Amino acid sequence: MLCLNGRMCGRYASSRGAHDLASWFDVEEPPAEEALPPTWNVAPTDPVYAVLRRDDRRQLRVLRWGLVPSWSKDAKGAARMINARRETVDSKPAFRAAYQRRRCLLPADGYYEWQVDGGRKQPFFLTSRDGSPLAMAGLYEVWAPPEGDRLWTCTVITTDAADELGHIHDRTPLLVPPQDWSRWLDPAVEDPGADLLVPGTPGLLDAWAVSPAVGNVRNDGPELAQPVTGGPDAPPVAPTLF
């Protein structure tokens, strides 16, 4: 899957276990009923970990990536709802209610973006410089089908890329710093503030070119996030970003 219509690319890495994430995000208990395997190629409609606040406590839950609004007649459009633009997240019917009451954080080791250069599409992996998990701003919904269990789904909020990142792609996931997690997750706060809906802070991310193999959802493994090195056609490693 390549970037289309100005959206962030639909791939990221999430290799940390539930207990590690629960400790990092100050969650009381990780989900006992479901544990996800590590993956370096999360794709739309995959199950993912999400941090959210319900029943007056912070929780780590497994959600499906691709938002299904509570009023949807079916879940067929979930793969098209992997991203919500920060410019319209508080006004679009698909996201407005979730933005007011059901915000979440989506932990990631890093994420992939595709740089288009002529006819060539080169994937890059972007990750935190200090090795800590990224907290991508997200929304979640709970959809009740006519029959069966309720479906918990989520989307990643994207924003304009800072100048240092814009040469790779013009959109980037919105990252929430630790000092703002509580405000972002609090369902009693209808609008967490425009100051949270801005590109990342300088000095946060590194980026490097990776293998095109990440574009195939059947491929997985830590090698997908490793820099491409060697060979006359290997793209250069990008400088430190942000």
Give a structural overview.
The protein has 242 residues and is mainly beta. It has helices at 18-24, 96-101, 163-166, 181-185, and strands at 12-14, 39-42, 47-54, 57-65, 83-85, 103-108, 110-117, 120-128, 134-143, 151-160, 171-173, 205-209. Helices cover 9% and strands 32% of the residues. The longest helix has 7 residues, at 18-24. The strands form two sheets. Strands 3, 4, 5, 6, 9, 10 and 11 form a seven-stranded mixed beta sheet that branches. A five-stranded antiparallel beta sheet has the order 2-1-7-8-12, with no helix packed on it. It has one domain: hypothetical protein yedk fold. Mean pLDDT is 84; it is low at 1-7 and 231-242. It is built from four helices and twelve strands; from the N terminus they run E-H-E-E-E-E-H-E-E-E-E-E-H-E-H-E.
The overall number of domains is 1
**What structural class is derived from the secondary structure elements?**
mainly beta
The geometry reads as globular
Give the strand tally: 12
Largest sheet: 7 strands, mixed
Could you give the order of the helices and strands? EHEEEEHEEEEEHEHE
Q: How many whole angstroms does the radius of gyration measure? A: 17 Å
Q: What does the average pLDDT come to?
A: 84
| Beta-strand percentage range | 25-35%
By CATH, the architecture is named Alpha-Beta Complex
CATH class: Alpha Beta
Helix content: under 10%
Q: What's the total helix number? A: 4
| Poorly predicted segments | 1-7, 231-242
**CATH topology label:** hypothetical protein yedk fold
Specify the CATH homologous superfamily. Answer: SOS response associated peptidase-like
